[in-house]
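Two proteins were folded this term; both appear here.
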Amino acid sequence: MNEKQTKSISKFMSLVLRHQPETIGITLDENGWTDVEELLTRMSQHKHPITLAQLQEVVETNDKKRFAFSEDGTKIRASQGHSVDVSLGLDPVTPPEYLYHGTVARFLDSIKKEGLQKMSRQHLHLSKDRETAVNVGSRRGAPYILTIRTGQMHRDGFLFYLSDNGVWLTDHVPPAYIEI
């Protein structure tokens, strides 16, 4: 597969494994998993034909590691970013003292007033380093990187989770913990 095909399949998989599984008639279990063979069949029926080898290539080469196979390889799920109700089975963990969030200037006034919100997603995503936050923020324009005082948040009782692909998750970041 070429890079364009891989990216197209990855985007479509993000849609069905994170937001709209009903688009191709699959279901996600309570932990976000779906059967690999069913996914392959349904994708082919919906103009996104893909083989198991190609699916494995998409999962292995995705720079953000958005997808994961179950240990036995029979199931697949998105690593995080769901807007559908699933439990990734993650236990709360202690975050580093600082994490980062990439955004753009047009959202800064709202962030100063309300903090960072998870919006339609199950969790708010935070990055372990500035470089990753720049990449995230760049998707919407010139990035503006926020430093989040996650160590203090954790000491104040906020919960954090670390997804399988290294994205930090939480429910909300109040303005008092954000360095703009």
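Next, the second protein.
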Amino acid sequence: MLELPEAVTIAKQIDDIIVGKKISVVTADQSPHKFAFYHGNPQDYHSLLAGKIINRAKSYGGMVEIRGENAVILLGDGVGIRFHDESAVRPPKHQLLIEFQDCTALSASIQMYGGLWCFKDGESDYVYYKIAKEKPSPLSQQ
């Protein structure tokens, strides 16, 4: 699982770099992994996310939530996340690749096991995500 400070840092970096970008192509499960966990059918992620504009990224516990209008991309549990600029070669193996209209991309690969969940807002029944959203962060000022 992503450690809490790591999830906070990654969410801030994503928020600084990709907010406002429009998703053009999503490729999920290109390199099948026995311990990659998805919400629903990963082949549906393109139709769910294509055309969405990234609104924000936020951490909840050891997870990173990326919002694109009414869709959620939730990353956690052993997921390595990489940003690729326009000229960068995309990794040949990945479990999730999100390409943006400006030719930049975000890739995610599973290390040992991990979750790459994409769903419409309100559709997730992942209990750890729900609990993390309800509780205050130990890093908050409250």
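The beta strands are 23-28, 36-38, 54-60, 63-68, 71-76, 79-84, 96-100, 105-110, 114-120. Residues 4-134 form a domain with the N-terminal domain of MutM-like DNA repair proteins fold (CATH 3.20.190.10). These notes refer to the second protein only.
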